[in-house]
Design goal:
About 70% of the residues lie in helices and about 0% in strands. By secondary structure, the chain is mostly helical.
Length: about 160
């Protein structure tokens, strides 16, 4: 168990603390904390919500699961992108790895709709703020630049390139 998860869970053990209070306190203390514990436990969510009709529910579950221990926008958004890409893989027949434009298109298609309509996670959007979310969106996709090249060459090294 990582330090972020350990700290978050220790905080919410206290009486009268909400389930996300540990993650919120950690984020308030260090808003640049973008550890990946929530991402590591995320893969089951798109499998559970694998039906095409359950996209918004999948995003709700992803955000809520992330918020248990990782409140920062970058951690949450990476989990959402992860969920959406896994769900896309269920329905797609990829002849090549997904490129950055595909990832952006997939993300924004569903993310914008979710942000406008979520009831379960509105509190998170209000606490972190739209500007913080927008900055995290840009940072997430900046970090993914070059993914296609790295992925392709990695697969080529293994003899499985497309």
């Amino acid at each position: 168990m990582g330090n972020t998860i350990k700290t978050a869970l220790a905080i919410i053990e206290r009486p009268n603390f909400t389930w996300f209070r540990g993650a919120l306190d950690i984020w308030k203390h260090n808003q640049n904390n973008a550890s990946n514990g929530s991402l590591m436990r995320n893969a089951a969510i798109p499998a559970i919500f694998s039906s095409k009709e359950l996209t918004m529910e999948a995003i709700d579950a992803t955000v809520l699961c992330s918020l248990l221990t990782h409140f920062g926008p970058l951690s949450v958004l990476c989990c959402v992108l992860h969920t959406l890409l896994i769900r896309e893989a269920f329905f797609a027949d990829f002849n090549s790895p997904p490129d950055l434009e595909f990832m952006k298109k997939t993300f924004y298609l569903h993310w914008s709709n979710w942000k406008s309509n979520t009831k379960h996670c509105r509190f998170w959007i209000e606490i972190v703020g739209e500007k913080s979310i927008q900055v995290a969106e840009e940072q997430m996709f900046d970090e993914l630049k070059g993914f296609e090249t790295e992925y392709f060459y990695g697969m080529e090294d293994q003899g499985t390139a497309y």
